[in-house]
Structure formats: structure tokens, C-alpha cells
Amino acid sequence: MTLEQYYKNLRVPGGKVDAVLDTDAYNEIDDQFALTYMLLAKERINTLGICAAPFKNNRSESAADGMNKSYDEIIKVLDLMGEHDMKSKVYRGSEIFMKNENEPVISDAAEYIAREAAAHTPEAPLYVVALGAITNVASAILINREAMRENTVIVWLGGPSHNWVDSREFNMMQDVAAARIVFGCGAPLVQLPCQGVVSEFRTTRPELEFWLKGTNPIGDYLVRNAINEAESYAAGKAWSRCIWDVTAVAWLLNDKDRFMGSYLTPAPIPEYDHRYGFDPRRHMIRYVFRINRDALFTDLFARIAGHNK
What we know:
Blueprint: H1 3-9, E1 17-23, H2 31-39, E2 45-52, H3 63-81, E3 90-91, H4 108-118, E4 126-130, H5 135-143, H6 145-151, E5 152-157, H7 170-174, H8 176-184, E6 189-192, E7 202-203, H9 205-212, H10 217-234, E8 241-242, H11 246-250, E9 260-266, E10 269-270, E11 276-277, E12 284-291, H12 293-305
Parallel strand pairs: 1-2, 1-4, 2-3, 4-5, 5-6, 6-12
Antiparallel strand pairs: 7-8, 9-12, 10-11
């Protein structure tokens, strides 16, 4: 693409766009909010497909187990929303993390993303919204580097802020090789850092119950899921819970910077020692540095509460 088109694709899109969501939906309680939000923004987002991403923590025995549990969780959310037609557009992703920066992890999801990228153009790109370890997306790049570089905009919630003490953020440190591929491939990239930026996007039990409890099946599920998770480690204490992943979807709806602020900066280099490397000669990415918490929660809650009304 031309340099002019590259910088255009790093701006908030105008009008309706095609997008796929790549999500480790069972990892936490925020992916479910993000998936719901994306499907409730049909006037702006044409969701072509949903990919299950791998993860490994105390909720999964392996990357494959995490991916398969995420697949099942995606189906559960779609059923609660009545989005039954979307279930045929859900793809299983990587069962392992990348072994190196040269070999893709072949999966239905990676092949699907690469195929969709090839069907788009720089002028009408595919937005790839990624909420977990970015293995599926990096593998799609290795499958079809030209199509992914030219015809996509990658929006990733991953890594901490660039001035953080290190880069030990869950999504990034699970698959550093994948992160290096994505940050180095030259595709337009929007980074939403976790610690130090998106960590401000927090809510509480009273707020969740006030806005969403009793509204509809998906609203009740989201409230119950978030509260149960927070109470599992903070019962009897004051708590707030970060709903990180919503912000990546919100980039596609960020008219006039109503939900977040951003600027251009040279692409950092995720290093294997869990630090960022910096080189001012690198290509530019879009870096989100501020979240307008109240405006975004207002839109999120209104969309969920209004579902099926």
C-alpha cells in the first residue's frame, strides 16, 4: 500500500468495517463483554468470524485446553445472545504457542484469518481485533505475509505501556515470538497496552448490578460471571474489576476520540527477556495512551441493556 494509505489505516475507521475477533474467551471474564459489545455494534462492525485463541494459566491445563475452552465459551455467549447463525463462523485456533518466528502454527483460525485478509484490500481492510496471545494472527502472517501486511489492520490488546518496568504482560509473554512477528511485519497496528493504560477501565459490583442485572440473559450472565470471579479472590473487601478487552473493540467505534486517545510511535520490539527494545527507525504504529472510562462504559452498558428490546 502507499504510505498515505498506511497512515490512513492507522486512523479510526469511518463507516462500517469488516472485522474478525481473536479471543481467549475462557481466560477471564472480560472477553465475553468484548464479544458481546462487538456483536451489538452491527451498525459499524460487520463481524465476519470469531477465532478461539490459546492460553495457559490456572483455568487451563495447556494452550490447547485453553483454546478449546475458549471455543466453547464463544459458543455459550452466542447462544445467550441468540446469535445462532454466528456459530458456524467460529474457528478453533492454535493448540501450541509458536516455536520460533519462522514456522506458523497451522489451525483453522490462522488459515481463516489469512484467507479473509486475501479477500480484502488496503482501501477496505480487514480489522483483526485480538484479545489474547497473538499466535493465530502471527501464524496468519507467516501463511500469507503480503495479504496480512497490505490488507489488514491489527488491533491488539497486549503488552504493557512502553514506559512500564518490563513487558511481562500475560498476552505478550505467553508468545513472545508471535508478538515479535506482529510488531515487525509492517502491517498497520493499533496497540492497546494493558498495565498503565487499559488498566484504568474498571468497574464494580454495584455498577454492574445497577446497569445490567435483570436486563436480558447475556446481561445477567456477564454480571454474574464478573462478580463471581472478583468475589473468588476479594470476598469481604472493596474491589473493582478491569474489563480490559472491551477497549480493543471500542477502537473501531472511537469517533472523535470519544473513548480513547492515541498517537503514532515507532513499533517497539518485544524482547525474549520480557523487555521492550526501541529503535526510532522502525515503522509507525498507533499507540493508545488514555481511556475515557466513563464514556466507554456508558456506551457498553447501554448496548447490552438494550439487547432484544
